[in-house]
Specification:
Length: about 575
């Protein structure tokens, strides 16, 4: 027989035969009964145990290699199960090195040869080297002078005396037994540890199953709650849409009923009705064409009148009333035609009146009066955000034209006091002259005051890092365009911090507690600028009335957030 392509020594086969001989009959029958090749010549279940033992031992002699089922059976009935199978390679290697030629060497080697590990089988072959030719025990030196018995006389007592183990051998055997008992105790402790680990693994597996079941139940419950919530939201949205849109849909429903009535009528009657309606439309076509031609002519004249008023150094007083009359005439034609207002034209009555007031304003002081009225109108909520932005853009455009006209007229440069009424242009004029200017921006106030610019960047309804970065980028464009401008951007924050975006743009967080932390910090900073930088023009961007009042008390200009939006590029950026 060969294992790992190496011939198995006869002493190992002899040990395996001894193991088969010692097997209990039930264990023996469980090993060999299912093998048809062993039961040849016997009826199933009638083979005696003695015959099975004989055939198993004979199989060890003739089989070229160790069958797996036979190796497993021998391992269960020998040291391989109780000792070799549970010990690591290092421990077995130590045991092999210490056994030398002591009793039990062959049994341990035979157990090692049927282990599934390659390294362990190699240890078994090493342990069996030279077992067949073990030398006879040497006669101690002290016994050499003892006369040997004559042949045939007292031979048996002499042999027994020669085979008696020496004291060293007894001590070595006792040490090996002690080591075996220690290994057995270690094995027992290891088995106890394995059992405890298996119990813990079973407990953890049970807890995992329970947790998974609870998680699945909670997921199902969450899905149900989400579905119910979505149904309630859909129902609420549908109810609100019905409440808001149903009055507007009444006319559409009426038209739908008329269309259904026409569709239900006879085809010939429906065709005659359509032809009659088309005849009416054709009869009115000439009037519509004339109205459209008049509208186009009026639009051209209105554009020329506005251009003449804007370009003239001394516009005629009659130009503004004529522009107003022609504008009303154009609106009447548009109402008659049933078309929407021209794109870009102010549709709010307040914006229309604002445009008429600006049309007659020929000085920056007059524009400043209109701006103050606009500020109060926005404060009480008569204009929404979009209309307020349009109004400030109109003021920007008108002030730009007036300012340019006064600069072109010799000896008529606007005074500093007139520019203070329009703070954006006072600041722009100072920057154009190269004067040093300090701009303080109330960050969170500006972000809330310009929803069309920054609301999409809010997080959970409040301005976060994305909105703050967008405002920083807007202000960076001003820094790039105006070398004499420096900006301080203030935000509310629990921690006092300062960060430099560039050499002339710094971002500060107020620190402290309370709702108006940044407001107090801005006021204190303006007080510092008034004392330390008297020659520097100071301006504040805020919609907060208290901050604006404190800024004016410290001789600083006050810009509305919408004016900052116009200046940074939303409208009229080219004038900046």
């Amino acid at each position: 027989m060969k294992i790992d392509d190496r011939q198995v020594p006869a002493v190992a086969i002899g040990v395996w035969k001894t193991v088969i001989e010692r097997m209990a009959e039930p264990e023996l029958m469980a090993l060999g009964a299912p093998r048809p090749e062993l039961q040849a010549g016997f009826r199933p279940g009638r083979m005696p145990a003695s015959a099975l033992r004989t055939r198993l031992k004979a199989l060890l002699e003739v089989c070229p290699g160790m069958p797996d089922w036979l190796g497993e059976g021998l391992a269960q009935a020998s040291l391989a199960r109780s000792l070799v199978g549970v010990l690591p390679e290092e421990v077995l290697a130590t045991a092999v090195d210490s056994l030398d030629e002591r009793p039990g060497r062959a049994e341990l080697a035979a157990a090692l040869l049927i282990d599934p590990r390659d390294e362990i089988r190699a240890l078994g072959f090493r342990l069996l080297e030279g077992v067949e030719a073990l030398p006879e025990p040497a006669v101690p030196v002290s016994d050499r002078s003892v006369p040997q018995p004559a042949p045939g006389v007292g031979v048996e007592p002499a042999r027994r005396h020669a085979e008696r183990p020496t004291r060293d051998q007894l001590l070595a055997l006792r040490e090996e037994r002690r080591r075996a008992r220690q290994l057995a105790r270690d094995l027992s402790e290891a088995q106890d540890g394995i059992a405890a680990a298996r119990k813990r693994a079973d407990d953890l597996a049970q807890r995992l199953r329970q947790t998974s079941a609870e998680a699945a139940s909670l997921a199902t419950e969450l899905a149900g709650l989400r579905e119910a919530f979505e149904r309630r939201v859909d129902a609420a949205v549908a109810a609100q849409l019905d409440a808001r849109l149903r009055p507007w849909l009444a006319s559409a429903e009426s038209l739908q009923q008329d269309a259904n009535a026409l569709a239900a009528s006879e085809p010939l009657e429906a065709a005659e009705a359509l032809l009659a309606r088309q005849s009416e439309i054709d009869a009115r076509y000439g009037q519509i064409a004339r109205l459209r031609a008049a509208h186009e002519r009026g639009a051209a004249l209105l554009a020329r009148l506005r251009e003449a008023q804007a370009q003239a150094l001394q516009p005629l007083p009659a130009l503004a009333p004529m522009i107003a009359r022609l504008t009303e005439h154009q609106r009447a034609i548009e109402r008659r035609l049933g078309v929407e207002a021209v794109a870009g034209r102010a549709s709010s009555p307040l914006l229309i009146r604002l445009g008429e007031g600006l049309a007659t304003a020929t000085t920056l002081d007059a524009i400043a009066c209109v701006r103050n009225g606009l500020h109060e109108t926005v404060a009480i909520g008569l204009l929404d955000d979009k209309e307020a932005a349009q109004a400030y853009a109109l003021i920007h455009d008108t002030a730009s034209r007036v300012y340019d006209r006064h600069r072109l007229a010799a000896g008529k440069a606007p005074s500093a006091e007139s520019l203070r009424g329009v703070p954006l242009y006072a600041l722009q004029a100072a920057l154009a002259r190269g004067q040093a200017c300090a701009l303080v921006v109330d960050g969170h106030n500006v972000l809330h005051a310009l929803p069309t610019e920054f609301r999409s960047l809010f997080e959970a309804g409040v301005p976060g890092p994305r909105a703050r970065r967008a405002l920083e980028e807007r202000l960076s464009t001003l820094i790039d365009r105006h070398p004499s401008l420096r900006i301080q951007l203030w935000f509310d924050g629990p921690t006092l911090e300062e960060r430099a975006v560039s050499t002339r743009l710094r971002v500060r967080f107020s620190g402290g507690v309370g709702p108006d932390r940044a407001d107090h910090a801005i006021t204190a900073y303006l007080q510092h600028l008034q004392t330390a930088e008297r020659e520097e023009l100071r301006a504040v961007v805020t919609a907060d009335a208290a901050v604006a009042s404190a800024a004016r008390a410290r001789e600083a200009l006050v810009l509305e957030p919408d004016e900052l939006g116009v200046w940074t590029g939303r409208a009229g950026a080219a004038a900046g």
